[in-house]
């Protein structure tokens, strides 16, 4: 790549030489192939060293046909908005739907545990699948799984049907797939900000989704909300088929390792383990992510139940609170992280987010009104948005671009491991000790992390 760059520089300095005949027959063939490639299906990198990372993919031929100046990254954001909207629709109404089917709080905790357990199993496999088969197929799999899950949930008439609807979540990793695309085309130094900007589309979906879900549930039924989410996911499938290219990794990475990845396969556990153990700092960041996320998974996993039982809120009121939380997350991650990373190191930002969460959970111990709950939720959302993005960015920097999907899958799996235990533990804490217990757990955890050594 260096030799090619020097030759391009030489041609710029000597325009007359750049129009001269090729030095060799091989060079002439290469130039012809390059010209042909420019007319072929994209993606292409606009600038940057194509052997490593490219900050932006050019617009696809399909977008050009429609006369829209859109690139793959923007398409990903559109789909991420739809995913977040549909997921939030069913999240807000799920406690009410389960209650109408005679599931109590503990059983709801089991349901959430089942969901995260299935996600835990699927995370690493999905990441490897994306590395081997490409982001397009991986995204199709994720959104198809979402449509199937919401469809089964809408048709459920018993507790068995609700639990059955959680099984397709084995490959419900649309956010994971979106992260893979962003990582593929973003320079490491700009990765935290790029990952943070994903929250603009994801957060907007968190705002719109609960509102739609609450209104549909109030006017029709909770099952109708699930069917709306199913329809939105099917729309995402059509968008992927039309506009997402087969591969978003750089051509250099694909050519260098495509054959090896295909031969190793998706279910090669030794390869996945090797990526984890041989990547410097990967185990540390994954362990830190698990501990840091535990209090939030406990609290947020029971948030809909807390608003319903402790504060006696209706589905549309709960949807409003979840939407407000989505707005805060969108602002913090979409704009705040970019500003912070320009001024401070990731270590400083990490400590600041831990302090914010420590203060948040201290306040949670004394929450007694809906207004107090909203204030605490804002602080927790800010802290979680920053710490999660920074740790994810750091994790992807421990591996090469060819294995980012697998590493992100391991990161998601570690979070799912915590999430698997959190709903059942959260339901137990809420039943036995009340809302204050969530604050106490958070205070203990973040005091430990604040004084823990950081690499």
Describe how the helices and strands are arranged:
Blueprint (H helix, E strand, L loop, with lengths): L1 H12 L1 H4 L6 H15 L21 H6 L5 H29 L4 H29 L1 H21 L3 H6 L9 H11 L6 H29 L2 H22 L7 H14 L4 H10 L3 H20 L1 H8 L4 H29 L2 H19 L5 H27 L7 H29 L3 H16 L4
What does this structure look like?
With 455 residues, the protein is an all-alpha fold. It has a single domain, classed as Up-down Bundle (Growth Hormone, Chain: A). Helices cover 78% and strands 0% of the residues. The protein has 20 helices and no strands. The longest helix has 29 residues, at 72-100. The protein starts with a helix and ends with a helix. The model is unreliable at 1-69 and 251-263 (pLDDT under 50).
Question: What's this entry about, in short?
Answer:
With 455 residues, the chain is an all-alpha fold. It has helices at 2-13, 15-18, 25-39, 61-66, 72-100, 105-133, 135-155, 159-164, 174-184, 191-219, 222-243, 251-264, 269-278, 282-301, 303-310, 315-343, 346-364, 370-396, 404-432, 436-451.
The N- to C-terminal Cα distance equals 33 Å
| CATH third-level topology | Growth Hormone, Chain: A
Main sheet attributes: strand count, strand direction, barrel closure: none
Mean pLDDT across all residues, rounded? 76
How much beta, percentage-wise? Answer: under 5%
Give the overall shape, derived from the CA principal axes.
globular
